[in-house]
Amino acid sequence: MRFLITLQRSTGYILPINYSYPLSSAIYRILAKGDADYAAFLHAKGYGKGFKLFTFSQITVPFKIEGDRLRLTGDEVSFQAAFHLPEAMENFVKGLFQSEKIDIADQKSKVSFSIQSIESLVNPLQLNKENEIVNILLTPISPIVAGLHNEKGNYNFLTPDDNRFTESLIFNWRNKIATCYDEQVASSALLMMEVIRQRTPFKSRLIAIKSGTPQETKVKGWMNFGIKVTGEKRFVELVLNAGAGLYNAQGMGCVEEKKERKILYNSL
Predict the structure, then answer these.
(1) CA-CA distance, 28 to 43, in Å (whole number)?
(2) Which of 133, 205, 210, 215 has the fewest CB neighbours in a 10 Å radius?
(3) With 50 as the cut, is the pLDDT of residue 268 above it?
(4) What is the pLDDT of residue 38?
């Protein structure tokens, strides 16, 4: 399920440019406050493998960049948030967020918001059958991170024009399927991904998670491309609801259906 969340600024106007992790923490706080059992599932169990099956987009708000800060020039902020949950829980999730407060802060600055509205968005696969093979063109609305572990246990981040980029995304996708179903279902599932170039170049973003702390991690993600995805409806919904690639719960890999198909022209 997917929502458009609109915030109204109440205090402050200087936002950290690395706002994804503070926003992730704020979302988790709301979930934890509303339902301790659900929060425990997100934070610790993740169906048994530590996955946090939600993601969110970049924020939409007018701003000016000032060093490592964003000076907000508007009072209304919006973003999409997606959760891999049964549709029956839609009203439950909406109820958690309604009338809540969100603080996005680090050691240097803080902006406080009130949640103005939370609107359910249409599932583009709602008319497809559960086990039907579907093809859909997706586009990132937050940077997609793909990587391979190196000998130090860290990630070597991949670019979309590297063949291993989609291999990494599919590997991560199979792990999510194994988490939600089982290893046999995951290993036998027909899954395909293809990067589709746009007329504009790929755009990279370097994001710091837990910025300014000893636990700081820097990840590199990419936007400005399409991904042609093929798989059973239930598995493609997993990508739509939980994100593509790595660090989804920190706001990476949020995707939506690409409708402006005419601007796509070349596959890798």
Answers:
(1) 8
(2) 215
(3) no
(4) 63
Query: Residue 64 is part of which domain span?
Result: 2-120
Q: Is residue 211 in a domain?
A: yes
Handedness of CA 257, 262, 263, 267 (dihedral sign): positive
Q: pTM of the prediction?
A: 0.90
Looking at the chain, list the stretches that DSSP marks H as alpha helix, in order from N- to C-terminal side: 20-34, 36-40, 90-97, 163-180, 183-188, 233-242
CA–CA distance, 254 with 117 (Å, rounded to integer):
20
Identify whether residues 90 and 204 lie together within a single domain: no
Q: How far apart are CA 265 and CA 10, in angstroms?
A: 43
207 shares a domain with 104: no
**Is residue 38 exposed (0-12), middle (13-18) or buried (19+ Cβ within 10 Å)?**
middle
**How many C-beta atoms surround the C-beta of residue 201 within 10 A?**
9
- Beta strands 69-72 and 63-66 are antiparallel
Q: How far apart are CA 165 and CA 162, in angstroms?
A: 5
User: Is 155 in the same domain as 95?
Assistant: no
Mean pLDDT computed over every residue of the chain: 89
Would 25 be classed as within a structural domain? yes
Cα gap 210→176, rounded to integer Å: 24
- Both 106 and 137 in one domain: the answer is no
Last residue of some domain: 120, 149, 176?
120
CB 182 within 8 A of CB 160: no
